[in-house]
Structures are given as structure tokens and as C-alpha cells.
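Re: that chain you flagged

S.,

Sorry for the slow reply, it's been a week of failed gels. I finally had a moment to sit down with the sequence you sent. For the record, here it is as I used it:
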Amino acid sequence: MIRTGRRRRRATGRRTGGQPKVVALGGGHGLSASLAALRRITGDLTAVVTVADDGGSSGRLRTELGVLPPGDLRQALAALCGDDEWGRTWARIVQHRFDGEGELHGHAVGNLLIVALWEQLNDEVAALEWVGRLLGAHGRVLPMSSVPLDLHAIVRGHDPEKPESVSTVRGQATVALTPGEVQQVQLVPADPPAVPEAVQAVMDADWVVLGPGSWFSSVIPHLLVPELAEALMSTRARRVLTLNLVPQPGETDGFSPQRHVEVLGRHAPKLTIDVVLADEAAVPDRDSLAEAAQRLGSTVELAPVAAPDGPRHDPELLAAAYDRIFRMRGRIGPWR
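Prediction finished late last night. Pasting the C-alpha cells below so you have them in one place:
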């Protein structure tokens, strides 16, 4: 079943009173897009962020200091900054990367700040709360696991000269850029500990939002942490799966919207989804998407959520789509 949301008035401001408890899972730019939308419609928001990044500044800090990769956590915090002068300023500062030729080249200010607080407090969750208070973040940011993770993928055609060869590709940065067809991903260690606060947030939520984002390297990894996966399956919260606007070069080249749904289902066959949200202009075959969603127990919600200037989600239009879904399908009354 597919529902089409008409172009609604852009969401502005924040609700007061009884607000939905929302948990958003993902990483990188996709999670940032979802958080920038969700913070507009609820003040009770938690981001649960993947910790498998091994590239760039995060990869260097992870290798040199043995810490969780801070980059996706930093991006989530920046996305939760407000639209006032304080929020905009701190968002720019934590995202700023040093230039030059020295050892600081390429490091993001926010990454260094997060790692410094980790070393001071010896508590990843408390340190992120301190950063959030400094930024005036409209929500909480948690890592999905308490240990750094490695992402391995089974890929067909990773070597362009051997298009039918199947091999194991190691590392999130490499998986994200593979020219081959990703068939399956797994985490190393295979049974990583979940952050207890992340598990509890999922269990206490009214709504859980999964995606958008890099499908194999940011979205699906949450389903591979056993305690977190169990919480996602047993929570009383309703679940929204937000699809990408376009396939990601390398990782999901040629993927249709329904194929995104199908591969997620293969990695978590017991997980049910209540709503699959997609941009109405990005779904050429609505019947096939509806069939794929139905196999996860879901209906499809189509809404105009793309920005007019490129393949990215518009935060206000995405907020309006989430707002409609939460109000029309929630277990509690309207929040306005």
C-alpha cells in the first residue's frame, strides 16, 4: 500500500507539550539530514551512530589513540545545533578542518574536542553529553557500540578485471567506494557490545527512524549489533525506514528503491517496519516498492522531501513528512 503526502507547509518551530520520543539510527550525511529534520518537530531526540569509520581524520585518531571513530558522532552533533547564531557558529566550528601540511592537516576540530573529552572523562557517553551542552544541541548523541568496529563486505566484482569474482572487502571507507556489487556486510568483532544507553533509548522510544544514508556502511550495521538488533525487534516503538534519493556511487550503484528495502530485510529477516518513506519523484516503480515494503510488514509513504538544488533531503520538507507520519500513525494524540 502506498500513501502520497501532498506538499505540506514547511515545518517550523518546535512542539511544546507531549512530544514523541524519537531515536534516529545511521551515520554520516544521511543521519545528519534526518536529525536536521527531526529536531524541528521534537525536543526528545536521540541519535544512535555507527562506529565503523576507518577513513580520514576519524581513522587516524582511531589508529593512533585506540578510540571510537568520532567523525560520524561529530556530524550528528553538528546537525542537532540550532538555527540561531550560537548553533550556526558552533556547527561551523566543530565541522572546521585544519589545512596546511602538518600533522593537524585534515583533522576536524570537533573530532579533536570529542577525543579530548573522552580522555579527560574516560566515559564516551558523558563526554558526548558535554559536547552537546556546549553546542546547545537539540538532542542526544550516542555511539551504537562501545568498541571500534570493522566493516567487512562480500563483494562481487570488486576487481573490475574480474567482474564475476567474489571477494571480501575490509574497511568502511573501502566498502563505501567499491566498484563491485555488495552482497552482504558483517561486523568485526561479530558480537560487539551495544552501548546500554542506546539500547534503552530504542526500548523507550515512540518512533525509531532508520536511514537515510550509506546503506551498507551506515544503515545496516545497526542491525548487526545483537543487543541493538534485539531492541529494534522487541521495542513497542513504531519504525520508519527512510530511503535515499539516489543510489550511492560504488556502494549501491544501480539499486532501485525496492532493492534497498530487500537487502535490509535480508540482513535482518525478523525486523518489521511500519512505514517506508521515500521521495515521490525517486520511485519509478511504485508497485514493486509496495511489494518489497509489504514483506517487511510496512506501508509506503511518498512525499516531496528532496531539496530543489540537488540530490539531498530538504530538512524542512523531510520534517513535514515525519510530522505527518507521526501524527497520523502514532499511538498518542496530536502534539500541536
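What I noticed first: Confidence is low (pLDDT under 50) at residues 7-17, 331-336.

Talk soon,
D.
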